[in-house]
Amino acid sequence: MSNNHEIALKRDCEAIQIPAGLKTTLPAGTEVIITQSLGGSYTIACDYGLFRIADENADALGLETRSAQEQNKDSAETVDEKEVWEQLRTVYDPEIPVNIVDLGLVYDCQVVTDRESGTKVEVKMTLTAPGCGMGPAIAQDARSKILTIPGVDEADVELVWDPPWNQHMISEVGKMKLGLI
Questions:
Q1: I want to staple 92 with a disulfide (CB 3.0 to 4.6 A). Which of 39, 56, 58, 164 is the partner?
Q2: CATH 3.30.300.130 describes domain 71-178
Q3: How close are the terminal C-alpha atoms of the chain, in Å?
Q4: How far, in Å, are 61, 76, 170, 175 from residue 179 at the CA level?
C-alpha cells in the first residue's frame, strides 16, 4: 500500500524515527503520507521526517489492525521451520521494500523443542549497516512475527555482525525487486 494523499493521525501515535530508531509520539492531527506498508508495519513521511508505525497503531492511520487470531497458539502443535521462514519473509526494513530473508539478513534459524520449556525459535540476523538505528525495531518485529506461529512459546532474535552483510547475500527475488538484475 502506498497512499499519495495526506492522512491526519486520528490520535497521538507511538512511532519510531527512521533511521535513528528513536521512539517518539506523533500528535493527533499530524498530516502523514504512507510511503510503505509491508509486513504489517507502516513507513510514513511527515514534516518531522520518516517514521515507522507498528500494526497495533494502525487505527491512528484510520486502518484496521491484523487479525488477533494469529496470536492464538497451541503449544501441542509441531512448529515447522518453513513456517518460521515464511513469517520472517513478512518482516521489512522500513526503508527497503524487500523482506529481511530476501535481503540476506537472516543467517540462521533453529526450532528447538524441549518437553519442559516448550518450543523456542532462535534466529541470528544482521543488518545492511552496523550503525542502523532501526536494528532493534526490525529484530523485535521479527520476534513478534515468530511468536504468532501456533506452537511457538519463545523466540530469540540475535543481531550478529559476522560475517558482514554485502549485496551478494541478496536473493534473486530481492535483486529483482531492487532492480539489481
A1: 39
A2: yes
A3: 24
A4: 30, 43, 12, 6
Query: What is the rounded distance in angstroms from the CA atom of residue 173 to the CA atom of residue 181?
Result: 10
Q: Which of 153, 159, 143 is nearest to 87 (CA)?
A: 143
User: Which H or E run contains 135?
Assistant: helix 135-147
**pLDDT per position as a tens digit, 4-41:** 689 999 999 999 999 888 999 999 999 999 998 877 78
Taking the mean position of all CA atoms in its chain, how far away is CA 131?
A: 18
Fold entry, domain 7-61: SH3 type barrels. (2.30.30)
Give residue limits of the domains in the chain: 7-61, 71-178
Angstrom distance (rounded) from CA 13 to CA 57: 7
